[in-house]
Every structure is written in structure tokens, then in C-alpha cells.
Amino acid sequence: MIKYFLLLLFISSAAFACDISFSLNKENGTSIKNASLVIDNKKLTLNANGETNLVDINKGTYYIEIYENDELIDTQTLSIDCTTKHYQIIVLNDTTEKLEEVIIRSQSIKQKLENSPFSVQVIDMKTQYDRSGDVGNLLNRAAGIKVRTNGNLGSETQINLGGLQGKAIRIFKDGIPVELFGHGFNIGTIPTNMLERVEVYKGAMPVYLASDALGGGINLVTRNPTSNLMEASYEIGSFNTHRVTANVFITGKNPSHYVGLNTAYNYSDNNYKVNTPFIASETGQKYYKEVKRFHDATKSYYGEVFTGIRGKKWADDVKFSFIFSDFYKEIQNDSEMGKVYGKPFNKEQNYAALVSYKKELLDKRLKINSTFNYSHFNTRLIDTATVRYDWDGKIILKDQVIGEINKGGSNQRLRYDLFSSRISATYEIKDNHFVELGELFYYQRRKGSDPLGAVSPVYNIDVLTIPATYQKNILALALRSLWLDKKVESIFAVKHYNSKTEGFTTDKFNFAWQSSKSNNLLGYLGGFKWNNDQFLTKLSYEYATRLPDEFEVFGDGVLIKENLDLNPEKSHNVNLNAQYVYGNKKNNGTVATNLFYRKVKDAIFLQPDIPYNRYINFHQVEIKGIEIEATYNINNQIDFGFNGTYQDIRRINEKAEFKIYEGSRVANIPFLFGNVFLNGHLNNILKTKDRLSLRWNLNYVHRFYLTDIPKSQEPSLFGEATEVSSELIIPNDGRLGQFSHDIGLYYQFSNKKIRTSLEMMNLGNEKLYDNFNVQKPGRSIHFKIIYNFF
């Protein structure tokens, strides 16, 4: 039956379509170097003669974008009647004035997403390629986002968004959960010039992602060139930091065939100075001294080779990718920087294969997008030292019990097999009314060993040798409609969440047995937006669910025990957005605000215990917050603005033994933060079409609490800390908050093949903290160069 249905779809599609060819020249007869066309949302690369073919296009009038070296140079409309087989396109020699109007009038992908009913912010990465560092640095400057790390390059990274953080915020690469690609591809390791854009969803998530995010998500969209590309970059920075990237995209003699490569290499000693405690041998008194970190090096590699075919009758785009990633990380301290280590390290290798398929059918009323992925991971955790270190790297004890992190040590090997599929479809049932479907399937199997790890006292076997499986399936179905000449848009959706876990579990007496658990839950969402030329208003609501992940369920086999009885987290999420745009094409500004509310039940927290920790369902949390952002642009030469976020995150409905904390702030989460920025640009400095830019950013994080403080003992927002609470506040040195200045100088050569930048981070060399008392790097300097071979 399915075969007949698919055959009918293809026949129906072909009945209304034809095959045509194009040739492209300037009006003076000269060819256009590295030319490409975008027509009907399809990207076509022209050959050396300025020709290309397009199959399976319907009769009608189309809007065409024409690119040279991946830069828009002209736009035209073209009527296709399916009787003419070849179309000659002539580009005017000077299209500058026309393009200024087109850019103002046309709606980019960024604008389309931000004008949807969802609370979403899109960061266009194409203007950020010359920035040093990773994607996390840029996200930290966006409104409502706080990127939190445990150090420098390669350290653990958490996203705080709308009052929620960590695993409540899902991260994707091109719509696929990012965990399938390994630590070589994540917020803290991927350089800026490997992405086309970053989509930040605050609250309700779009149907096509079919996610179980509790508080929003981030979609990292990789580059998708329209013409041949060969680009390499190199960055060198403080703390012996080196980053290398290469991006390649090549079409064959037939422009519909393409191959490519994306790769990134990162290395850093991370040997920045930190203020650490020492004990005086004479007096036994604690004192602090500034020393360099000595065991925090990171090395990561990510490589993706792909090939594909575009513009065929049977597929608009089909792509095959093969991925390898490698990650090495030394471990110097615990999560609170209270213990120092000198030998432990993590290693990870990942191999993955991915297939994606896109097709429009039924006179373009049906759009299908699917991706299938398989990954295999090998991970190691080595903690076998019998010596102990001080913060300056000196050995202070010998012949100790094996293991610095955990008494007894660890020689852990884990093997993961992961499979994921994502299928999304949109069908236009009538004009301006669409049915949308999204489905995400995820499966993981873990098996390993640790001769120094946990052993079942009943079966006398290594618990990691018993396979543990985790599976989830999320299905979303929506109705989306456009009203009043597309000024009003609405969406209503239902979601079904299913998960199943099977593994080895133990009780507090260490009795062990095979166990399994499954979950079946429903969720729903609704969204509404209204906009005209200047005003945009949105309202969205979602009853969201986050399924416990495999780490929370199975633990790590070292310090964290399994808990197969974990319940999913649930939250009521509301967002109200308003935006006002004013000015003209030369001088313009934007003012935007976002009010958000979250009410979380069965929040998952790590419960400390001796000798093992375990994730449990504990708090109920209520979150009320506001984001404000204002920007202004002067003649595309100066732009400036600010953003600020306040989020009131409180514990509610506490049990009797915890009533003292009723209404208290949730610990270790910043609740007031923001940015101020100023950018200046000058053109034609040394040569025609070169560009010099200066960018400055100030980041502020208000003091927040290291641990739980009863509401009655909280200091006022801008008041002095009390004696009781001063040691429980970050920072605890009397500062009201943490200021960090970043400044950079950027130059693009006139041939546009070379870009360089020189940046200084944390200009004032301030002591900065994110998680608990883990200190971040001081002042650092970075130089980056990008070379485009075409």
C-alpha cells in the first residue's frame, strides 16, 4: 500500500512539472565568476560556461536570486510556461541601487523565523566569521542567554535560557540532537565560521524539531554554500590556544552533484592563572595564592565529509555524510574547585554516518524532510594515580589509595551505539492553511567495563558489562494558519512522548536486579503572532515535557548511581513578545521585549550522597522573567545597543523538612545579566572595497548564590550582602557583579579573500566565575586569519 501511495505522489508531482535549462551573463556579455541561482528555494550552481539545469519545476512565475562568489548581485522574476526549454538571464552591470531596495523588501530566513509565532532569535553567523573563539562566546552576548562554562576551551558548557538551564535546553545540529556528534562538535568547541546561523527558541519549540526540551532549544545550522567554496582559517591565542578550520564545497561538471568537507581542530593548554587555597605548613592557616592551571589541556577534532545530489525528479536534495570526531580533556578539579587533581583525563572517539533527503511533491503542497543517523562512541575515563597534588602542580603525597577523583580509581571503557531519525512534513490543505508533522526517534545502547568500578555484591560482576538501553520517540502534529493577508499567524499542536529504559539497578543495600521503565505522556502548544511593517506581537504557550536522559537514568558507573525510577520533568511555558522597528534603510532601530513564565514540576536534580550520588525528582520551581533589547544602526557604519535579562527563579511547594527554603531562589543560577555593545565600520580605507571594523562588548552578571539561602536572608537586589550570606554569594569579594570587556579590530581585504582579526577578551583581567567557584580565564589575546581560495 505504501509503495502505491509513494508512486501516486511521484506521478502527481511529475504531471505538473517540466525540465528547463538556464544560461547567465552580464549585459556586456561577460560571464559571472562562481555564479549560482536560487529559484523556488532551490540552489543551482552554474558551470564554467554559465549554464545549469533544473528538473521537475512547475509552471508559474518565480522570484530569482543571483549570486556571485556567494554574494547577492541581482534579483529578477521569471515566468516559466513549460514549453520554453531554455532561458537566457541577463544581469545588469550595476545593480547596487536595485539591491538596496531588494534587501529591504525581501524577507530573509532570519526574518521569516523571527516573525513566526514562536519566541525565537536568529543569529546570522555570516557576519561573524572573523570573530575568534567558539559559538558559545557569541551566544553569551545575545538577549536572554547565559552561556556557563567550567573554564576555557573544551570545558563543560551549559546554556541558561528563560530561567532553565543544562539538559532542559536541547541543542541540535541541523535538527539532529547534537549528542550524536560527540564533544568535537558542541557549543564550546565549534568555531564561528563553521555555521550559517544559530536559531535560539525560547520556550515553545517548532514542530519540525519534535523535541522534548523543557525550556527551549538551540539549532546550530551548518553552512550550505550556493557556489564552490574552499576556505581555511587559523587562530592563535593566549594559553597556547590554537584553532584550525577548513570548509570545502565543490560541484562537478554537472552542477547538481557536489562534495564537501567541514573540519575543525582545537588545542589549548588552558594554563591560565587562578586564585587557589593553600595551607601554611607552619601555622595550618589557609591562604590564597595565584597559580597557573597545570592539568587542564584540551584537544578536539571534528571532520565531516559529504556528497550529494540536488535538483533531481526523485529528490530536491539527498546528502550522505561521514563523520569522525576525537576529544581529549584533562581534569584538574572537581565541580566546585575544592579538590585538585593532577592525572585524570577523559577520551572520546566517535564515528557516524548520516543520510538526509528533501523533496517537494503535489504541486509543492507537500514538503518532506528526513534525516537518518548512526553513531558509534568509544569513551575512556582514566583515574589511576597513587599520588596527590597541590594547586601549583607539586606532588604532596605519595603511595596513596588509587584514584584522585574517586577512592578506588577508575579505568572505565564505555561503548555506545546510537541511532536517530527525524522526519518532518508540511502539507498545504488549502490556501494559507497547513498541517505539519514532526517525528524524532532516538535509541542508545551502552556497554562497557571498569575493573576498578562498581561491582554488584549479589552477582559479583562489573555493572558496566551489563548492556543498558535507552529509547525515546517524540511525535508532534500541528495546524498552522495565516490570516488577514498573512499579518496574523496561528499554530496549534499536540505532542506524544514515549521513552523506554532497560538496565541494571540497585537499592541502598546494594541488592541488584534487571529493571525497565517506560513513559507515555501528552503535551500541547499554541502560538499566535500579529505583525505589520513596524510592530510585531507574539503569544505562545506549551505544556512541555523533558524525558530523563541516559546519563541521569544510568549514571556514570563511578560516582553517580543509576535511577530507573526517574519521572519526566514537566513545565507550563508562556512567552509574550513585542517588537517595534523604526527608521529608514540608512538609519534604523529596534526595541524588543519578552515576558516569560515557567512552572516546573518534578525537576531533576543531582542528590549528593556518600559514597554515591544519584539523580532524583525533587523541586518544584516557578520562574518569572523579562528580557529587554534595543539596537540602533547609523548608515551601516555605526551600530550600538544593549540587552538585559531578569529571571526570578523560586522554589515552591516545598516539603515540610525544606519549608525554610519556600520561596527562595534556586541556587547557582544567575538571575540578572546583560550586554552593551558598540560597533564601527569604515570602508575603502587602503583600497576600494576593503573594510575595517572595531567592535566592543561589555558583559555583566549580577551576583548570585552559591547555595540555597532562605528568602528572609537574601540581600536586596543592589544592597550590601549580610555577614551570613556573603560567603555564599558569587563573587564573594564585595563586588555587586562581574564586568567583562571584550574588544576587537577586524580587517577585510579588498579582494575579499582574506579576513583578519585581533581580539582581547576580559580586557580588565577581572576574576570571573560561572558555575560555583570555578574561575574563568583572565585577560587573553587572539589573532585569527581566514583565507578563501576562490
Automatic annotation (TrEMBL):
It comes from the Bacteria. One of its GO terms (molecular function) is siderophore uptake transmembrane transporter activity. Residues 113-216 form the TonB-dependent receptor plug domain. GO terms for cellular component: cell outer membrane. Its main location: membrane. It is a multi-pass membrane protein. Pfam families: Plug (PF07715). The keyword Membrane applies. GO terms for biological process: siderophore transmembrane transport. Keywords: Cell outer membrane, Membrane, Receptor, Signal, Transmembrane, Transmembrane beta strand, Transport. Residues 1-17 form the signal peptide. InterPro entries: Beta-barrel_TonB_sf, Plug_dom, Plug_dom_sf, TonB-dep_rcpt-like. Gene3D superfamilies: TonB-dependent receptor, beta-barrel domain, TonB-dependent receptor, plug domain. It is found in: Cell outer membrane. Belongs to the TonB-dependent receptor family. This is TonB-dependent receptor. It comes from Empedobacter brevis NBRC 14943 = ATCC 43319. The lineage of its organism: Bacteria, Pseudomonadati, Bacteroidota, Flavobacteriia, Flavobacteriales.
